[in-house]
């Protein structure tokens, strides 16, 4: 099976609401491996770069302000098809439409407070990981339980 990495970030509302542990726990229990973890307060330039594909959208200025409005928790998760599976754990963009059982479906009510980011492709994952993590800030390791999760 195909192993890859994704960039997952608990947004400022998720941090302020005390949902960091809950969000990490869902990725851990699913069977993915945490390869990088750090906290920061994002500046405007970095937020604009992170969301550069959305520049020009009417909500873009609000989105940038929101992401910069408090601490975020930045993570690299690795595993089989983790980009797609991670987005399934997170749920669709608007929490109103997100299925119960997903993070946004269980904890969110508005699109502008949707708690967590997940990369939408392997390529964007690589771009986002290099934007948020310096090369030395991730950890090479393999959990001993891997054979019980992956064939
Ligand atoms: P996602 O975060 O599900 O990948 P996206 O990449 O299309 O969604 O958009 C990035 C963020 O921008 C999203 O998490 C919340 C915000 N956003 C998207 N569409 C929006 C809209 N129609 N109104 C307000 N905010 C929106
Ligand atoms: Mg996106």
TrEMBL record:
What cofactor is this protein dependent on? Mg(2+)
**Parent-record interval covered:** 73 to 223 of 225
One GO BP: UTP biosynthetic process
Taking every annotated instance into account, which residue ranges of this chain make up the domain Nucleoside diphosphate kinase-like?
A: 3-140
UniProt lists the family membership as follows: Belongs to the NDK family.
> Could you name the active-site residues?
117
Instruction: Alphabetically list the UniProt keywords.
Output: ATP-binding, Kinase, Nucleotide-binding, Transferase
A molecular-function term among this protein's GO annotations: nucleoside diphosphate kinase activity
Binding positions (ATP): 11, 59, 87, 93, 104, 114
**Protein's name in the database:** Nucleoside diphosphate kinase
Protein origin, superkingdom: Eukaryota
E.C. number(s) listed in UniProt: 2.7.4.6
Lineage per the UniProt record: Eukaryota, Viridiplantae, Chlorophyta, Chloropicophyceae, Chloropicales
The record lists the catalysed reaction(s) as:
a 2'-deoxyribonucleoside 5'-diphosphate + ATP = a 2'-deoxyribonucleoside 5'-triphosphate + ADP; a ribonucleoside 5'-diphosphate + ATP = a ribonucleoside 5'-triphosphate + ADP
